[in-house]
Amino acid sequence: MFDKSDIMASIDANPPFGDFGGLEGTGSGRPPVIMHTTSGTTGNPQVLLFGAKSREVQNLMLGRLYQFQGLRPDDIVHSVYGHGMINGGHYVREAVTHWTNAIFMSAGTGVETRSARQVELMRDFGATVIVGFADYIKKLAKVAIEQGIDPVKDLNIRMISGHLGREDKETLSQSWGGVDCYDWYGVGDTGIIAGEGPDRDGLYVMEDGQFVEVCDIDTGKPVADGEAGDIVCTCIHKDDVYPIIRFNTHDVTKVVTGKSSIDMNFTRIEGFLGRSDNMVKIRGINIFPQAMGPLLEADSSFAGDFICKAVRDEQGRDEFIVCAEVNGPRDLETVTRFKEILKKTIGIDCGVELNAPGELAPLTQTEIRQKPIRLLDERFK
Predict the structure, then answer these.
(1) Which domain of life is it from (predicted)?
(2) Residue 330: left (phi > 0), alpha (psi -120 to 50), or beta?
(3) Residue 282 in contact with residue 310, Cβ under 8 Å?
(4) For 221, which DSSP code?
(5) How far apart are CA 88 and CA 161, in angstroms?
(6) Fewer CB near the last or first residue (10 Å), C or N of the chain?
(7) Hey, how many other C-beta atoms are within 10 angstroms of the C-beta on 243?
(8) 55-184 maps to which CATH number?
(9) Distances (CA, A) of 152 to 127, 149, 229, 273
(10) How does pLDDT run across 143-172, given as a tens digit for each residue?
(11) Residue (of 241, 206, 188) closest to 54 by Cα position
């Protein structure tokens, strides 16, 4: 089993590309190689290398999933994935343009195309599908309203497909007029691993291209179905550049038990439940910061953006603080409601700090990052 730390060590020892691509074993001449990087969510950006064949198989699997979810030939797809050196936007563009008949709009992040302009593009070109990360897609609905554009009446969005994690799908759906929202999961190294189908009851593993194990976070041993653990992936379609055998993503999930309602025999997983290397242990309780947002959605005043802090006081006691943007009063009553919601699920008292909409953007970097920052661990400063 290996993980990102091994890849980064390979790059440090053999800059700038590392030796994990296996290019030295290809004989005379270098085979076709596609290079991108990760977004750097968990540290410095990582080099990603793809062979021509395995890259196209990844494209095919994602294009196939979009159509399984309901993408049609007459759709206009608005993508908010990042580009530049980052793999995501290029990968999704290739999947849609190579393996579907839909028209693709590469809008990118809010830095590449201003949010207000993105809403105008969706209106002017008649976008029907949005693909990307849930946080920014929700933000675009709010930007539309600020621009005097009704996300339901003035736009024609009928489907959203992206990385919803534990986000409240109903909230995301209603912000765009009750559209169908679909989750899918993959990492830069592997491409798509699993995705929801029309039943939206778990993510179907692409078992004709990926072999997935769910392994104990501490021991690395496979866990029983229904138990949480790290996603460990072997890419059975990658036989050209950068072979991937038992890659630990450190993303946490569970295997869904029971029979598929649409009689699909592929293994299902719950999707992204948090990162084991971003998990914090506070007074003996394991907490995944990404899971706080969906909990706060239970209160109607929650404005959508949040960030968590882990701090240590002078007596050495660890505290977990959730900073949340809210609409309306930022008073003791609202703080108390939020604390009760968090304690009911987490099991310990958490601190709560309330902010006005937009105040947390410099910390979460929702506008400029595909994956917003959700944890500031200040215990060891």
Answers:
(1) Bacteria
(2) beta
(3) yes
(4) P
(5) 14
(6) C
(7) 16
(8) 3.40.50.12780
(9) 12, 9, 39, 30
(10) 999 999 999 999 999 999 998 866 568 888
(11) 241
